[in-house]
Amino acid sequence: MGEPPGGAVMTHRAFMQRAGKRIACFLVFVLALTGCDSETPLTVVKAVAAGVPSLAPFFDENSGLGRDAQVRSRTVHSGLQQGDTPGLYGGSKQPTICDVDRLEQFLTDPANDQKAQAWARALEISKNEIPDYLERLTPVLLRHDTLVKNHDYKKGKAVPYDSLLQAGIAILVDQQGQPAVKCSCGNPLRPFEGDTSRISVEFEDGNEKWQGYERSQVVAVRPAPRTLERIALVDVQEPERGISRPVGTTGEDDATFDTRKRRAVPNLAGTTFGQASRQLADTGLAAGYDGKGLPPDGARVTATDPPAGSELRFGEYVTLSVAGGKSGGGGPGSTSGDTSDGTSGGSTAPPAPPGSSGSAGTPPPSSSGPGGSPSAPSSGTSSGSGSPGGSGSPGSSPPSSPPSSSAPPSSNPPSSSAPDTDTSSSRPPSSAPPSTSAPPPPPPPPPPPDPPTGSPPEVTSSPPTSDPVTSSAPPPTSAPVTSEPAGSEPVTSAPAGSASAGATT
């Protein structure tokens, strides 16, 4: 009487089994997350808010070197941006957001010699190069929360640390659009080297989390793959006003433009990613990419979204689809005929023949043009491969390998997809004999059905007229012999490629 019904026992067991499975799945999930964290640890980043003084600056924040602005961080396409991206940085009608002349006075003052040496080492220049270096810098305002490697000045040394600068902070950028100096304190800046998606931001020392902060919207800047002459900015107070600022100036030579003016997406299919991003930047549009990071500059562009001809406002993104490239890394790339092969081929390398796995032999005539032509898109793995055979029909190109290796012996003549139809050459062909899909002139009726079983007759200077062959191809008994083609031997294997081969079995 004390035992529960059998159905209740079964229900209890089923419940415990289901609960056990759920707990096991949860533990596996936790272990997986722990394993990921242990393999790719988070990079600790210190938040630096606009207008908040640094604890250990190179120069006093109240010395008038620069002042920040109140700017709401903008949405970005990806966490990695190039320094020439239109609208990446902002400006204003007040050209004195950074006082470069005063910073130079501080760094060249003998009383600040130790600071100057530490400052120069952080930027990988010599102390004597400081004046020339500063003349090439350009003041801008951040429009995005931006990751950098910042530096404090402690005990006579520049101490690096990763930091997140809030949008609105005034900085100086170099000739490739790379953040170089934080204006308000003179701290040198270097590129952030971590993963923008694997950061842990610390808000402390008065740098409270600011309104609009989103960890998924922070950016790091990669140097532009070219030296810039002007930087296209957006006025942070009047977004419809664009500012074209010459590099190395502080605002006195600015030119303005209307950011609302529509710009047509150029036709970029077939260009490299490096070429496409530069062409978009010159148009006033930003290059986007859906993959992680940025592709190699030599990767070939296959499509754009939106397509060519679409009209966008200044700074809007055009997503580029690319075929992979062999050129390593996403650093500055070549500006002349970029090739997806990097060093293996170059822009004038001929396309490999179909089925080839190595380098091509004698280049066909159609490969004389540059491989980087926008009208000849590449497959992404071989420069110029977008136009194989583009100047003639198959078979019009010379053979790409020596005759001794192009047609190995076989019991049946191969059915070639690209037969050699040139019979006027003074040397025997190196490919397979004509197939039934492209026969020579119509042959006479087939010989008697009793073929000889012994060794075939000796080859003479003219093709036999009555000896049959066991090949499925019709015997070339009526073809005019002007160069003693290899197909004249009545043998059961492929031609030896030379008329002097003699009788074979």
TrEMBL record:
Transmembrane segments: none annotated. Residues 396-412, 430-455 have a biased composition (Pro residues). It comes from the Bacteria. Residues 287-311, 323-505 are annotated as: Disordered. InterPro entries: DUF6777 (IPR046704), PASTA_dom (IPR005543). Residues 258-324 form the PASTA domain. Pfam families: DUF6777, PASTA. Residues 335-361, 373-385, 413-429, 456-472, 479-505 have a biased composition (Low complexity). It comes from Streptomyces plumbiresistens. Residues 325-334 have a biased composition (Gly residues). This is PASTA domain-containing protein.
